[in-house]
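SEQUENCE-TO-STRUCTURE ENTRY
===========================
What this section holds: a protein sequence and its matching fold, both as plain text.
Question of interest: how does this chain fold, as expressed in backbone structure tokens?
***
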Amino acid sequence: MGYPAALSVSHLELNNNNNEMTMTEKRFISPSPVFSDVSTALQASLSQAKEDGRITLGVYQAATTLENNLEDVMLCILAADDFNNLELHIHFTLLEAFCWENDISLVKVDSSSKLGKLLFDGNLPANDNDFAAGRINSLRPLDCVLIQFPKETISPQDKKVLDFYKASESMLPRPIIDLPE
């Protein structure tokens, strides 16, 4: 399944009207050969990492992993669709800063629910250990994933995603990878 060679870019616009703060997403798409098929490579990379047991799911679990096993983390993936959740946005900002300070590659994807479907087909806990423990009744979308380095060599798909990060590292706003439905 191929995707057009396009770069989807978005940024947040913060509005403060009458003591109400709102965030809105501004998005545009720009063609770029450097970013062709990065979505396909990310899907393959996630699939292999899941099979190998090299993923960490959720913001809080990611923070714990980054604190304890920083050198093992190859890639941080954040879902960029929760713009109305200010608490989550603050956590993402802190995770981004931490990853930047510690030279950890970070990419954003367009949807937490698409990320959850990609990893779990919608039938397993995707973000919260509370579901598994029976403390909540429904699954929440997946908002953050860490992929650890493989024990062997990095796959071509991993390399393509890491190359995407390097190529887009200086772009502001950061590009967002569109995942399939």
Notes: The two ends are 12 Å apart (CA to CA). The chain is about 40% helix and 25% strand.
